[in-house]
Amino acid sequence: MSITTSETADEIGAVNRMQLADKIAMIVGGGLILLGTTVMGIFESFFTGHTVSPNGNLGDVVIHTSFDPTLRAYAIALGLLILFLYGLFRFTTQHQWGGQESGGDEVVTPE
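^ that's the sequence the OP posted. Answer follows.
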């Protein structure tokens, strides 16, 4: 990537840091959501024996799970929180830089 007259090395470094932040947020946030939904669900469905035991004469059935449902919920919620916070970060930095990293029009103020 060559530096043109309108771009400085600091601006290019900032864009590269933003691209790195994009990748980290998507991997961590998306990974936690996939871990809580897909990975734990597949593991629990196919690789563990669901033990279902009747609870006496009450007609209730007790299902013993491999993962605590609150653990799955916390993993999903943490992933969503990371993506939400990243979205806020991206929104504030985009307005701070005038929207240049997303291909937006440059804001020109009258003199």
